[in-house]
Amino acid sequence: MGSSCSSSQSMKDNVSVKSEDYAMEQKVSSQHTRAVTPTLARPVSSSTDDRSYDTESCLSEKGGGTNRQAARLPLSVKMGDNDGVSNTGDAGLAHMENSAPPDVKESPRKSRGAIPNLGHLPDLNKLSDVIRNLVMGNVVFVRPILKPRKICIYTCADLKDTIMERSALMEHVYPKLRLYCMEKGYELNIVDLHWGIPDEHINDHSFKELCLGHLTTQARDSHIVTVVFLNETFGNALLPRVIEGPDFDQAISAMELDTDRELFWKWYHWDENAQPPCYKLQPISTFIPNIKDSNSASLHQEAVQDWSNEVKKMMTLMRMVFNQEQKEKYLSTVMEQEIKQSVFMNQESAKHCLWICRKFTHFPSHNIPAQGKVYVAVEPESKKRLDILQSELKERLDEIRMLKFRVKWHNSGMNPEVPEHAQFVEDLCAQISPLLISIIDGIIEEDETKEELKTYLGIEKRLFHELMQQSLMCQFRYKNFQGRQEILTKIRRYLNNDSCVPLIMHGEVGCGKSSLIAKAMERCCEWLVDVPLVVRFVGLTPGSSTTEQVLRSIAEQCCALFGEHRAEAAKGVRHMSAFLMHVWSKACKLRPLVIMIDGIDQVKSYGSTSLEWVPSELPEHVKLIMTVRDDSPQMSLLQSIIEDRACFLKIPPLTIDEGYNKFEGILKQHHRSVNKEQRELVSKNIQDCPLPLYVEIVGRMACEWTGAESQLPLKPTLLEQIYIVFDDLERANGQVEVSHTLGYLTAAKHGLSDSEMIDILSCDEALLEKIFVHCTPPVRRCPSLVWVQISRQLQPFLMKTIVAGICLLTWRHESFRDAARVRYLGTPDQISMCCTALIDYFQSKWANGVKKPVPVYEAGVEEGKDRYVLDQPTKYRGSNMSKISVQSVFSRHNRRKLDELPYQVLQLRGRILEEFVLNFEWVYEKLCGSDTYQVLEDVSLALTNHSNNIELVLLKEVLELAAYALGYDGRQFYSQVCGRLSTLMCDPQNHETYPIIKKLYETAASAPVPCLLPLTVCLHEPFQDQNMKLGDGQVYFNALIRARQNPHYVITLSTERGEIAVWNIFTMSPVRTLTGITQPRKLKMIDDYRCLVLCGRELRIYNFDEGLFVMKLREVMNQKMPYFGLHDKDHVVALSRSRMYVNMMNLQNGDCVATFKVGEDRFLNSLMVSENGKICVCGDETQKPSALLVWDLELRKLMYDLRIPHHEFITRHAAITKEGHYVSCVCREVDEPAPNFIVVYDLQSGTLFKKWKPGVNIISIAISSAGSCVIVGLEDSKLMAYDLITGNPRWTLKGHTAPPTTIRLDNRGLQCLTYDSLGRDRSVRVWDIHSGNSLAVMTPDQAITACEISSDGKAVIMALEGRNEIVTFLLCHQSGVDGHASPKSYGNDTNRGKVFDLSQAGTWPMSGDAEENMLWS
Asked: Count of alpha carbons within 13 Å of 1033, Cβ hemisphere only?
């Protein structure tokens, strides 16, 4: 985007433009070069009271910005005919926006073919379509592939038939299953909407809609497991909530008695607002007000009886007057509908279904007692329908999914006091548990299989989850967007002009800022082609709730776009400004950048509120749009940063037409309308409060209006209207129930899951007393229906967010959160009640069989009841479930507890310093199980009350410096602390200044857990410039090689500098350095002092001990495949220059002493030699299928020509055991797209020994006879270890975030080191091969250029970018670095530390003995 280009030329370069669009642009913009003098903003008043500024300069075609030296080219925006601004006006824009319905509107184009590959920037075409769309911000193409790790057991049952059975499952089965699932990282939500309620007749008759609606929601958000209790009845049909007009009229006309018609007209009223109009059943309390009486049991019981009589009469009449089709339509039971929707939908749902069928023996066939009618269907029609339903279940379910029981009838019905009934329940629990576990295991295995088939994403999963949720929220918000064409036009102008400053869109609460940003993102996918778009809705996820988190995720996305490593994005706010400007400055003409941040004022108080990162002037090719609330402190801060008031765009209120169009859109979506009087009243209120959120609330409420209302609940302000929503909710569900439920929801830091809410409500005695005033179930737990009713009514104003796989529900709008906080957390007592309940829950106060007291007012004593809530340990351990399922012992951190508990304790007690922030065992667990930024938020919360605590400031600094490493793996905590505080703690004065941090340092230095402790300063230290490089960025060493015998020394190789050196790994100093070596590419140690070095295409021998060039071998190597290996101390084998044979050369005189050749025109493409030098294996690329050629080097003959029909060996991924008994190689089928796999040959017999198919492409391999295993690195970033003896998979090792391209084994075959040599994953991991445990992990601040594990497995040696010396990390546990063994001396001690210049070596003899050997060179 050079400043000399015109706007139209810019579009020709960057945008796919329709011919008519381009023609229009020629009219609008000049074809001549834009003047270099920028357009100045108009003078504006300094008054900011109304926040309404002149925006013509910033939003004009030329843009603005008084501090720009020369005009900049705009982003390339596709301008259509409707973008003219002189006389087309809003009408033209409206026509453009609404020319077709959203579902048939022309789809925006992904790109003009492939995204341009710019060479110096990452090639985004290498990413999958899903990841590319996420990284590029193509929100319209993102599909919801992210699903919570949630399983829902949905119970289909009659209300009264199976109370005993379902209660027994709640007591004896579900608690263990919930724990079992949580140990595997899944939430198990138990939904039984028929349990714990007196009857199914809800006052507003919404029970059926609630059940079916919740079933639909759960099926979308979780894996449904259906448990059907279908015995000899399926319950009673409920009165239909609505009856269509023609059906109602037909029924009325068929009635003979006026009293019958009057009964129907009494309860069914005309709903003229429905589309089409219908008759709607009135709430029970309309004519029987005592139905809601919670004070008088007798009045309530009388009301229930009255209603039952009315229902019985109307149901009898309906069965008489309705035809069969109408009966199916209106009189099917809830249970019938649930089974059809959850089981009969598809074959897959039937696999996740269990049917429990209980039949009575000795049941009276005649004169059925009243008690017996609860358990059997009496009506002939009901029996017929029941038979049909059971027959279909038998057809769809496997026999194993059907549990059938025969139980002896007792006159009291099902009674736990009856031995036969108690035994039946016990048998049911025993049989259903393993079946449910089997279904759950299948679901989890299927999930993991899908996950394992995914290849490396190209971005970290944390960023993937964040981008997915942000994109889906963007889609949700723009889906029903209407109007605001003038603002969209101004946004388009800003993107198309040469403005160099951010655009700040501001308005009052609820003015539609978020929807506007979402719509702008959607339109940008049309306006801009191949332009990366970054969007963040602040507060949507925990990863976007604070300034630090928002900036980190934006920076990570920009790193993916512009080629920076994501480790650079983990910086504190004060350092983020420089980094963002650095990465944004990489934007260019062919890859510009647009960033949109919605609600920058909504960052949480436990993070930074600083806006110093906001640039007053943006780099070229970058646009930044932010929204902010008018009355927020952030608005004032932005005004102080950005002087150009033309860049502040006031979001105006909705016009009357826009507001009412939005209102009508909501009604149309729900098939509703309003009459003239209601329309006029709504219009008047929209005029008084023209805010989109207000219109949405009114629209949602209007969906319940029937047209007969005498007074509508409309208020003139947004806050008052939100309170009307709360009033309606309390009126329908009870004041205590709503106030406590919403209090808990609002008090939670990140929200609550369905199962968490039910658990917490189950421990709320005040709420349970209200719920169970007329009915007390056998188990003291809150019925699912309570939460489902409340959340269903609030659904438009709640949102779901996924945290660590768990689906949480929280407020969608800050306006609702603020109103709920005032109303339900406005007093100290309310805060105390809610926070105490949450603390008790996450501290497991009432879990593990602890009985919570139940007030018994008559006796004046308290009775304890188990609430069966989920245990909340810091870590879930697999051994807890040994009674149900045998599992290997493992642990999984409880992130929900780690995130919520400190926050709740602070709200209640005001102090978390000692219990959490300076409790380093807690900090360690939270870093391992949650996120570094969650720990930093705790530190920030503690600093609000202890702002002068310098130890907190130091701890925060260390955590910020180590944020990326600890976010990668929190088990590095002690390594990072030790590495970053060593210099500070060397000063005794600091011991007194930081006594607590000193204790932490001492703990870290003693390695309480296995970790890699550095022997020198190699990490950024506190209170230094984070942007300062630790080194100069140069790659000093590109290879590390272990010494042959002495484990205390390694050799470094530097190709560019022509240098080889021997290093003491403990002192990290060179003991010998050879310089002046020509292009050293590879090195193999002949013995402890002599090495064979590939220099260019020659093999040379050097003596480290004396610093001598010894000789050069005669043969020249192949340029692309210079492979060689040692046979013994006197011979080397190497691929010939032509690759047609293998040469064996003498290391004493350089002569070729033997040649291995298979036949003519056989081109070899690899060479491996076993460590003992006896076996050589080469790949043959000529033969089809390709072959592995195996030679015995001692006998100097070909042993085997190994091949598999229709397969080829990928010989670059092959390994051989030390003694040469086994060779493993990656293989693939020819002309087949299936992933490659592993084969192992027994070289003693020449037979195919093992074959393994991981199902994912293999990218690295190692084999160990001592460890009896083969280890492979997979394309999905995992490692797999296979047992070489049994052939079974031994371990799946997870932890790397990119495919591990390098695997290095220690000499004992007990441990291995893995890392990604391409630098996508900057971390090194050390694994215990036999146990499958990750022993330690280390993420340095600099990129790793080479890495090696010591031969004894006790140290990891790294070469880091920018460092001219090696860095050693000792693997420590329960001891520090001081306990390492003293290194042996290396050779002639008088040569220690010497540097030998061998730049002239090879031009004359280096020693008399070698003169003859040197002459020929």
From this structure: 3
Kindly calculate the radius of gyration of the chain based on its CA atoms and give it in whole angstroms.
37
Give the list of residues 6+ apart from residue 687 with CB closer than 8 angstroms, or none: 656, 659
Q: Over the stretch 678-693, which tens digit does the pLDDT of each residue have? A: 999 999 999 999 999 9
Q: How confident is the model at residue 882 (pLDDT cuts 50, 70, 90)?
A: very low
The region that residue 1071 occupies, defined by phi over 0 for left and psi between -120 and 50 for alpha, beta otherwise, is alpha
Strand 1011-1014, strand 1039-1042: pairing: unpaired
**pLDDT (tens digit, 9 = 90+) per residue, 573-597?**
878 888 999 999 999 989 999 999 9
Average per-residue pLDDT for the chain: 87
User: Are 639 and 648 spatial neighbours (Cβ–Cβ below 8 Å)?
Assistant: yes
Q: Where are the alpha helices (DSSP H) in 572-655?
A: 573-584, 633-641
Q: Is the dihedral of CA 1405, 1409, 1410, 1413 positive or negative?
A: positive
Q: CA–CA separation, 479 vs 563, rounded Å?
A: 33
Contact 660, 682 (CB under 8 A): yes
Displacement of CA 944 from its chain's centroid (Å): 30
Work out the average pLDDT over 888-902.
Answer: 85
Question: For residues 604 and 907, what is the distance between their CA atoms, to the nearest angstrom?
Answer: 14
Q: How far apart are CA 823 and CA 829, in angstroms?
A: 12
Which 3 state secondary structure label does DSSP give 1261? Answer: strand
Which amino acid makes up residue 1306? D
The strand pairing partners of 1258, in sequence order, are 1274
C-alpha distances in Å from residue 733, one per residue of 533, 711, 725, 747: 44, 22, 12, 20
Rounded to an integer, what distance in angstroms lies between the CA atom of residue 1226 and that of residue 1272? 10
> What is the full DSSP assignment across 920-973?
HHHHHHHHHHS-HHHHHHHHHHHHHH-TT-HHHHHHHHHHHHTHHHHHH-GGGH
- Tokens linked to 687: 């005029």
User: pLDDT-based confidence at 60, cuts 50/70/90?
Assistant: low
- φ, ψ for residue 651, nearest 5 deg: -85, 115
What are the angstrom distances between the C-alpha of 283 and each of 155, 201, 241, 265?
A: 27, 10, 10, 14
Q: Give 191's strand partners.
A: 154
Burial of 1205 (0-12, 13-18, 19+ CB in 10 A): exposed
Tens of pLDDT, residue by residue over 90-116, are: 333 233 233 333 333 344 444 444 676
Strand 278-281 to 242-244 pairing = antiparallel
Euclidean distance between CA atoms 554 and 1285, whole angstroms: 49
pLDDT score of 571: 81
pLDDT of residue 1402: 64
Cα–Cα dist 56/1267, whole Å: 73
Q: Which residues fall within 8 angstroms of residue 516, CB to CB, at 6 or more apart?
A: 481, 484, 487, 488, 505, 627, 651
Strands, E assignment, 1159-1278: 1164-1169, 1175-1180, 1187-1192, 1197-1202, 1207-1216, 1222-1229, 1237-1242, 1247-1252, 1258-1264, 1269-1274
376-385: long-range pairs with CB below 8 Å, 24+: 376/232, 376/233, 377/232, 377/233, 377/234, 381/319, 381/327, 382/233, 382/234, 385/234, 385/332, 385/336
Give the C-alpha separation, 199 to 195, whole Å: 9
Check if the beta carbon of residue 496 is closer than 8 Å to that of residue 77. Answer: yes
pLDDT tens figures, 221-246: 999 999 999 999 988 899 999 999 99
Question: For the residues 73-88, what does the mean pLDDT come to?
Answer: 44
Query: Do the beta carbons of residue 1252 and residue 1284 sit within 8 Å?
Result: no
Q: Which two tokens stand for residue 374?
A: 């609860």
Percentage with pLDDT > 90 across the chain: 72
pLDDT given for residue 1032 in this prediction:
67
Q: What letter does residue 869 receive in the DSSP assignment?
A: B
Residue identified by tokens 């990390």 is 1369
Can you say whether the dihedral through the CA atoms of 315, 316, 321, 324 is positive or negative?
positive
